[in-house]
């Protein structure tokens, strides 16, 4: 079995290709949303996509762990653990907006080392591999310089994603930024990697929401951690702060800390 | 000069084709945002697109009025008045998200009778003509049934688009809906026309933000007015309520009224 990250990224892109076929089959058809324990909508497409990805991983890398949004986790103490969000932006998907993504991340010894973000409906893909430059549709990308919060463009998915305790901290940062924008879902991190957005600040995120994105942001020159500057892995607290220009990291953390 | 709405819609689609060329030329290039009086970002692309559209209208229909977001208004007392938003979702455009649109609306004696919403980056277009069925990429579409607010899917662009006075009313409606979603910009109204979303509720909107959308929503079977149920024209108060199922209209207005 390979432990070469480039080979694992090639496999991850095969997973993304397969996921596309399933998600696009259901996109903009009448897919009923049912209620998960946390009341977020889950669709047949979500579950069918994750099942397909898990089967492919089990067949190729039976010793690797898997942590998925829909179907739980196995072997999370393995050296390599795949972290899967078959459809990030389920509400976006259900409402026919082409901004949903498939997130395929890989942890090695609890560190995010590879990630693919695929946007099936708009045919855009980011690939991040530890130690290499992030690729957007096959082309290298980098974050842009932005050294002060008040000139930064910020994204978050929704004001209701923040806990009551955390919202005031986020709102301070949003208020200090030049413009706060909503609703980009996972794509916000890709826009940051490409140098069009400076800060993404979110909360109540699961590992499937962020593991794939860390190598994409960092391979483009950015920094991505919890609000307290801790690495993002299976044990993180759900807060996520990504900045394009590393000099913004400490400044944003200070505003969040109050 | 024709006063046939179908012919005017064909012309509006030619305007949309021309606008696409300009906006896509600038999309995801480094376009500086400067500050308008209201502090929203305006780009070269915005202004160049509107200038092109105005020139085309002046050449073809010199007696028609024009009301544009960027370059002001002329002959707004004419029988026909074109209402233009060259790039709806400027912040979205500037941050590289493919969700911006071009809105081309037509008022006849102050009533919204024709509208085109074009999404250049994702190649999607809605056309609404008074008295006919709305077309999405050339295919007829219709809203879906949804008879209670608590099963409805709702969109708004941003929580910060509401005045302080209006936000609590909006928030009651969002809270009463099944799910509230953010950031779809003008596309939210198209998603509603296609039967994937049930309510769009917004505030502080200009005529260029809504005139083109009224015939699209109504031609698909929906209802679109101010929060108080008044027609949307150049003199409206900036509140906008669109529902897919007409039976939601009075229910939503009651919740907004408190």
List key phrases describing it.
homodimer, 258 residues, alpha+beta, Fructose-1,6-Bisphosphatase, Chain A, domain 1, D-Maltodextrin-Binding Protein, domain 2, 2 domains, eight-stranded mixed β-sheet, five-stranded mixed β-sheet, 32% helix, globular
Describe the protein in words.
2 copies of one chain form a homodimer. With 258 residues, chain A is of the alpha+beta class. Chain A folds into 2 domains: 128 residues, Fructose-1,6-Bisphosphatase, Chain A, domain 1, CATH 3.30.540.10; 109 residues, D-Maltodextrin-Binding Protein, domain 2, CATH 3.40.190.80. Chain A contains 8 helices and 15 strands. In chain A, helix 4 links the parallel strand 11 and strand 12. The longest helix of chain A is centred in the N-terminal third of the chain and has 22 residues. In chain A, 54% of the residues are buried. Chains A and B meet through helix 3 and strand 12 of A and helix 3 and strand 12 of B.
Q: Care to give the gist of this entry?
A:
Chain A is of the alpha+beta class and 258 residues long.
What's the arrangement of secondary structure elements?
The structure is a homodimer of 258-residue chains.
Chain A: H1 5-26, E1 34-35, E2 41-42, H2 44-60, E3 65-68, E4 72-74, E5 80-88, H3 90-94, E6 101-108, E7 111-119, E8 124-129, E9 135-136, E10 139-140, E11 153-156, H4 167-176, E12 179-182, H5 187-193, E13 199-202, H6 207-210, H7 213-219, E14 223-225, E15 240-243, H8 247-257
Parallel strand pairs in A: 3-5, 11-12, 11-13
Antiparallel strand pairs in A: 1-2, 3-4, 5-6, 6-7, 7-8, 8-9, 9-10, 13-15, 14-15
